[in-house]
Structure formats: structure tokens, C-alpha cells
Prior knowledge:
Layout: H1 19-38, H2 42-55, H3 60-72, H4 76-89, H5 94-106, H6 110-123, H7 128-152, H8 156-169, H9 174-186, H10 190-203, H11 208-220, H12 224-237, H13 242-266, H14 270-280, H15 288-304, H16 308-321, H17 326-338, H18 342-355, H19 359-375, H20 380-384, H21 392-406, H22 416-436, H23 439-446, H24 464-472
Helix pairs in contact: 1-2, 2-3, 3-4, 3-5, 4-5, 5-6, 5-7, 6-7, 7-8, 8-9, 9-10, 9-11, 10-11, 11-12, 11-13, 12-13, 13-14, 14-15, 15-16, 15-17, 16-17, 17-18, 18-19, 21-22, 22-24
Amino acid sequence: MAAVDIDVPVDTEPQIHNPEDMDRQAEGFKEQGNAFYSKKEYSEAFNYYTKAIDVSPKNASYYGNRAATLMMLCRFREALEDSQQAVRLDDCFMKGHLREGKCHLLLGNAMAANRCFQKVLELEPSNKEAEQENKTAGTLLEYERQADFGFEKRDFRKVVYCMDRALAVASACHRFKILKAECLALLGRYPEAQSVASDILRMDSTNADALYVRGLCLYYEDCIDKAVQFFVQALRMAPDHEKARLACRNAKALKAKKEEGNQAFKNCNYEAAYQLYTEALTIDPNNIKTNAKLYCNRATAGAKLKKLNQAIDDCTSAIKLDDTYIKAYLRRAQCYMNTEQYEEAVRDYEKVYQTEKTSDHKHLLKTAQLELKKSKRKDYYKVLGVSKNATEDEIKKAYRKRALMHHPDRHSAATPEVQKEEEKKFKEVGEAFTVLSDPKKKMRYDSGHDLEDESSCDGGDFDANNIFRAFFGGHGGGGGGGGYSFDSSPDSGPGNFFFQFG
């Protein structure tokens, strides 16, 4: 049987057992580490300090030096462990206490840092560095206090401000970063919040707080299914994570209620849809984007139920939550059109068209502008008291009624002021009938053309009495013409009259 070659590991360093020789070897490693440290080659320095510790594990200064190197490598938790080991080996090791305090500060533990700096000042009362670092620890504690107060009052901008300043001191504190990210999410600054949480997850993929913040951002961006996945993962890492549990419950409830409302709407059960959207809006006031959609959905259901003013209010609420929500502007504009609030409709359609210059949006804007223009003219349909879809017979009947109602002869016994007002109304009724009874003029009027400059309606050649005589077939003239006589006897009602043709 052939012999098998076995690789036997060879020690790169000679094995030394004499204590004095071991001390010299450890010192040699330390000196090499110092040389690399001075050249800012921290990884090599770390390796040689580790060799020194392996040879002489009871030497506090070796741990102190390696802690300093780890701090330069931004490995602060490991640096903290080495600093703590150094002062365990030598409680009078001032640099060890100072480095431990700095590590605590960088990791956001101001109380522990304070204890370390106090220890340094006990060993060396005039240590200026310890004095300054102790003040910094106090400042950090004050930022924490203000942030806690701000969060309690839901002043999330204040919290972000405090955390930015705290992180200038405690740059490695995940707790501060998470609090900042959570508040950024609550302020709707989702990309910034996501970035902070992602940075933490790159270093620690199991960080439940960071997973929660990622889920929170998705939840507030109305990506509820993905958000639930992150909340579930956070709870898997930390089963007692109360914020993740509450957010997960809200996300599921919100999705279910919204879907119920959508289904009711699809089934044309608008009352049920309206109620379900109302219930959904009570689940989480902080979910701005989803609530904006819920308000708009409720406005759509409200419009179907002819609750146009409530629908306008709901669209306004949606826009306050999300001023980029095009669908809410469109829905509100349509409600304004339906309630003849054309200036407001034009304003909303202009906003939409500025944002999305589509042909459909341009057409909606033009239509609203036309209706606004038409609304500023005399509304001949209102003058006659008919709808815009009135038939020719309905227009004639309406003219008959209004013309007789406002004819000057009927008000001959009234005060001059009343006579003047009724004469004006009589003229307007004639104008309205002249336009709406003529198919061509009516078509031009309905399409928005201004007809007041035309001879038939300019108050010059136009004579309301001529229209009246032509319609009723009379020969006399109103307003003193004597061709018509209105019966105003006591037993005659306000609408009873007869004509005497001369």
C-alpha cells in the first residue's frame, strides 16, 4: 500500500516557553504593531497586537493598543470588549478607561461613558480630555432626553434634529439611527428612512428594529403585502417587538377593510362601500398615503350617492395628505363641475394638466373653461326656469308663463322700483326665448359663444314687446301700449288674467 503524504501545519513563529523570552517576543510583536499603526496600516497593526496578546494574554497595554486599532477600523464593539478586558487586568490603566468611555460614547451609551470618564478623573483629576469627553456625554444625554420628549409629543422633526446631533457624537449607535429612521418614515421621508435601515441591515441582517423600519416605509407607501413580510420577519427575530406586532396588525386590518369597501363598490352597494371606507380611515391615522386613497374612494362612493359636498370635502382631505394625488384632483374637479363651481373646477384641472399634460386632461380643462365662460353670461335656461335639456315645447310653455308673470301691464299699479325690476325681467325672458327658440342661436349659445353682441340680444333693435306680440298674436304694445288688459279684480288669483285685443 502506497504511503500517504500528510500535511503537517508548521508554526510560523518559533515556540518559546521561557517566560522572559515570551515577554520579549510579545514586546517585539507590540513594537511591530506600533510601527504599522503609525503608518495607518491598521489591519496589520491589529494582527501584530493579536500576536502579542496570544503570547502574553495578561498584559493590559496589548489589549489597549488593539482597542485603539479596532476603533480606527470602526469596529467599536470589539474595541469596547478589548478596553474592558484591559481595565479588568489593570484597574489603574487610565488609557484603558478613556478608550472604554469613548467606545461607549460612539455606541450611544452616555451613562456608561460618564462612569468611565469619572474613573479617569479619579486617577488623574487634571485630565482635560476626560473632562471634555464627560461634557460630551452630558450633551448626548440631553439630546436623548429631548428626543424622547419629542417622540412622545409626536414632534418627529425635533427627534430627527436631536438624533442628527447625537449621531455626530455616537456615530456607531444603531439605536439612534433606528429612531431617526422611524421618525423619517413617520414624516413621509421614506427614501431617507429606507437608506438608514438598509445601512444597518447590511451590517446586521437580523436587526429586528431595522426590519421593522423597512416594513414601516413600505406600509406607509401603500405596499402593504411587502410590509407585512418585513413585520413578520422582525417578529421572527424579536417575538416581543411590540411596534412590529402593532404595525402588522394594522396593516392586515387596513388591507382587509379597504378590499371590503372596494368589493362593495364593485357590487354597486355604495352605502356599504362608503361605510367601510369610513371604518378603514379610523384604523391608522399615520398612514398618510393609504388614507389619502381611502378618502378619494369614499368621495367616489359619495358622488354616486349624490353627496357631492361631502365628496368635495373628502377629496380635499385626500389632497391635504398627498398633494401629488392626481386622482383626488380629478374627482374633486368633477364634483365641482356637477355643482356648477366652475372656477374651482378649472383650478383643479389646471393643476392636473400642469402635472400630466395628456390629451384627456387638456380636454377636461377646456370643457371646464368653457363652462366657466358660459356661467358668466346670462343663463337663459335659468331665466326661463327650464333645464338645459328642455324640449321646444317646454321652452315655449316656460316663456308663456314667465312673460305673463313679468309683463309691465300686470305691474302698472306697483311702485316705480317694482315696475322697473319687472320690466327688466320681462326683457330678459324675451332675450332668453329669442335665443333658445332659434335652433342656430341655441346651438351657438350652448357651445359657449357670446351672443350679446348680436342684434337680437344687444338691447338695441331687440324689443321684448315685439316678441310677446308675435308669440301671443296680439296687436297692442305692453308698457303703456294698451293692447293687453290684465284682470286684477279681488276674486282673481295672481295668475289669472285675460287679454282684450283692440
